[in-house]
Amino acid sequence: MPIGIIGAGAVGQALAGRFVAAGEQVVISNSRGPASLRDLAARTGPALRPATVGEAADQEIVVLAVPWRRLGEAVAAADVTDWQERIVVDTTNPLGPPDFRAADLGGRVSSEIVAGLVPGARLVKAFNTLPPDVLGADPLTPAGRRVIFLSGDHTRANERVARLARRVGWAATDLGRLADGGRLQQFPGGPLAALRLVMEP
Ligand SMILES: NC(=O)c1ccc[n+]([C@@H]2O[C@H](COP(=O)([O-])OP(=O)(O)OC[C@H]3O[C@@H](n4cnc5c(N)ncnc54)[C@H](OP(=O)(O)O)[C@@H]3O)[C@@H](O)[C@H]2O)c1
Fold it and tell me: How would you write 134-160 as a 3-class SS string?
């Protein structure tokens, strides 16, 4: 089954490119509709299909790659009545346009808030600690495999996303539950956020 991506900006495109390079099919969407993604599709090839937000959300794995303050709107556009059976991969960081001020999370981990927007989904926080140019680059560096972090409250969903990441070539590191691992990888503030690590062979 293809991987759905909601958000086709810097992060969405970086991930789409790596997934396609690893042999995955991708269904990708933005707020302006599939026609606006024609150039991206032409550059990437037939494994990437521009789609509506609803079609991207209709996959087993759905990656959220939209700005924090547009999450509610994007999830509403997905028009999903029951998120069960889906793994939602949260790449978001709780800041962004227009002012890039960190959101007030009331002491919660940002992905716990995102999980509340997609009730029933198994949420995995991943891919949020690296900038798009690094995410989009070959994960196999001369020094070793680039490390990506993930966390989530559903062990099998974490394993599923880790398997996908390892197929791409990343050294996927499962940090455990959102309350613990999510806090470690949270940006801003988490000690692992923005760390660029590679795992030696
Ligand atoms: N940039 C980084 O360094 C970085 C690193 C890791 C994680 N992140 C996180 O990743 C997320 C995406 O960041 P980005 O840098 O990729 O942002 P971006 O380049 O501004 O792209 C945002 C994408 O979200 C889409 N979008 C906005 N509202 C939408 C909606 N209602 N429905 C569907 N799509 C919608 C936009 O589509 P339109 O253009 O059509 O509106 C655009 O394709 C953010 O939460 C950010 O915090 C960023």
Answer: HHCCCCEECCEEEEEEEEECCHHHHHH
